[in-house]
Design a protein that fits this description.
Layout lengths: L11 H4 L2 H7 L3 H9 L38 H5 L4 H16 L3 H8 L2 H5 L4 H17 L5 H12 L7 H18 L1 H17 L5 H26 L6 H8 L5 H18 L11 H12 L3 H4 L11 H7 L2 H4 L15 H4 L15 H15 L8 H5 L1 H10 L3 H18 L4 H12 L10 H10 L6 H12 L4 H13 L4 H6 L3 H4 L1 H8 L8 H17 L6 H4 L5
Helix pairs in contact: 5-6, 5-8, 8-10, 9-10, 9-11, 10-11, 10-12, 11-12, 12-14, 13-14, 20-23, 22-24, 23-25, 24-26, 26-27, 27-31, 30-31
Length: 551
């Protein structure tokens, strides 16, 4: 082995051919120029029309979930397609067409109700039921019999237990109620629940969901249309009271929502809810107490039936809200005469000498008559002559007061079933207006006002004409005072809420002459009533000739 360092190895550049040296190792000047030059990205050539996207046979996945455009395909083909995206595109397109009142769109969509209701996936349900809402909202000639059946089909839908479906169904049902009216829709709901209850084979959890949704729909109808259209006498209160104690929380919440909404419209429901158990009563009271005054306030219905909107727009503001709500139909009638002691009869009072005995005899009846609703009976009509005699001739104030109380309570509890006796007794009671000892609020005045539960307001106006022209200043002032209070009386609110508008000519004719009365008190009362008439009929052209021209 030779001593010394190893011989030097030839470099790659030295052994490579001269042409490759320029490629592998560019010159310093070339490197510097390349570092200063901008970076260039080589672009792929655009595909030709023959190649196109997906020419290799593999489908392209759209970025950011962009949906494919199916608008070039016929609507009929898309609605009948098994492809969900095609059906959804058809629903969206038809919704726009129906909103624009396209007659062909309405006709085509009606033929595919079954397709619409058969959607099983949330995306399809959303698109189809929104299209159904557009159809119900905009179709000008929809037939009630075609859409009423939708209510039961939706309640029996296999996805009704899913939250998405439960959100989509109420707007559809409310629109059906605008077309078919609340009683028909409610009948569909209650009959569906009864059918579900009677089913021998049912999944308990799914059944509970169906019941909860059904009661929730009752709440939606009540909240949207108010008890004027969804009156409790339609029978849904029995359904609510039946399920308010159910073990399922969803059902209980739905029941309480109905009771709270009804209480906000009608006030205290204690008489109607006597059959409800104490824990549920406390829970309802707790929920009502938690509401603010603003949350309790109910002004007017949110929805109306088809055809009513134009009428409501042209009506007076007072009449647009409808009649006041009454709990009379919510409570059961009491058979008072059956509860009277054996041998008791009203005529026996005339053989009694002591006023205390007479009072106690009448109190036996009045204590039983103090009920929200009384079972009609001819026995009350038979008592009329005896009460006429007591009101006309009795001088003892406690006895007159108790007799008048009986008469007023019978009118309140019997309503129109007591109209004929009420007319007769009202005339007799008004005949004692000149007697200051009995014409007091706690003796005759309040009871005369109660008689208006049975006697029509027109009859009172006729009877008061003679007292407005009386020579007694006291009688004239009391007669005008009764007219002033009449519009705000609960009985008149129920029967004739537009009293000041309907009877403007009659009231003005009766009272206007009294502004020239010699007594200041009479003039003052007459002016008050005329001012109320003017304020309530400000837009009426009759105000000038009836009142203003006479002042």
């Amino acid at each position: 082995v030779a001593d010394g360092p190893p011989p030097p190895q030839p470099s790659l550049a030295a052994t490579a051919p001269s042409g490759i040296d320029e490629v592998v190792r560019p010159s310093a000047d070339a490197q510097l120029a390349a570092s200063k030059a901008p970076l260039k990205v080589k672009e792929a050539p655009a595909p030709t029309a023959a190649e196109g996207p997906g020419a290799s046979g593999e489908p392209l996945v759209p970025e950011f979930g962009a949906e494919e455009d199916f608008s070039s395909e016929p609507l009929e083909a898309r609605l009948s397609s098994k492809d969900l995206n095609r059906r959804c595109s058809a629903y969206v397109e038809m919704s726009s067409a129906m909103a624009a009142a396209d007659p062909a769109a309405f006709q085509l969509f009606q033929q595919h109700f079954d397709t619409c209701l058969a959607e099983a996936l949330p995306k399809g349900q959303d698109a189809s039921l929104n299209a159904l809402v557009a159809y119900l909202k905009h179709c000008p000639d929809v037939r009630p019999e075609d859409v009423l059946r939708l209510v039961r089909r939706l309640l029996q839908h296999k996805s009704i237990d899913k939250p998405k479906m439960q959100l989509l169904v109420p707007p559809v049902v409310c629109l059906v109620a605008e077309i078919c009216e609340c009683p028909s829709v409610l009948t569909e709901i209650t009959e569906c629940v009864a059918h579900l209850e009677a089913a021998t084979k049912k999944l308990q959890g799914f059944f509970k969901k169906q019941v909860a949704v059904s009661i929730r729909l009752v709440y939606e109808l009540l909240a949207e249309f108010s008890p004027h259209k969804m009156h409790p006498k339609l029978g849904y209160l029995n359904l609510v009271l039946k399920y308010v104690t159910d073990s399922d929380r969803g059902i209980r919440e739905a029941c309480y929502s109905v009771l709270v909404e009804l209480s906000c419209w009608m006030g205290d429901l204690s008489d109607a809810l006597k059959s409800m158990e104490e824990p549920q009563k406390k829970e309802l009271a707790k929920r009502l107490e938690a509401l603010s005054d603003e949350e309790r306030k109910r002004a007017k219905p949110k929805r109306s039936y088809r055809g009513e909107q134009a009428v409501a727009e042209s009506s007076a503001p007072q009449a647009a809200q409808g009649k006041a709500l009454d709990q009379f139909d919510l409570v059961e009638a009491v058979d008072v005469l059956r509860k009277l002691p054996k041998g008791w009869h009203l005529e026996g009072i005339f053989s009694m000498e002591k006023w205390k005995d007479k009072q106690e005899h009448l109190q036996t009846l009045s204590s039983l008559l103090d009920a929200p609703r009384i079972q009609p009976n001819e026995g009350y009509v038979a008592m009329t002559p005896a009460f006429q005699r007591l009101l006309k001739t009795e001088s003892n104030l406690p006895v007159v007061s108790e007799a008048a109380k009986c008469v007023g309570l019978m009118a309140r509890g019997l309503r129109k079933d007591y109209e004929r006796p009420a007319r007769q007794l009202l005339s007799v009671a008004l005949g004692r207006m000149h007697d200051k000892s009995v014409w007091k609020p706690n003796i005759l005045v309040d009871r005369v006002e109660q008689l208006l539960w049975s006697a029509p307001i027109e009859f009172l106006l006729e009877e008061l004409q003679q007292y407005l022209t009386s020579k007694s200043l006291f009688v004239k002032k009391e007669a005008i005072g009764l007219l002033l209070r009449a519009p705000d009386l609960p009985a008149v609110q129920m029967s004739c809420q537009d009293l000041l508008q309907r009877f403007l000519p009659a009231l003005a004719t009766m009272v206007a002459p009294l502004i020239d009365d010699s007594d200041n008190g009479v003039r003052h009362q007459a002016s008050r009533l005329l001012a109320v008439l003017v304020d309530s009929n400000a837009a009426s052209p009759e105000i000038g000739p009836l009142i203003l021209d006479r002042i």
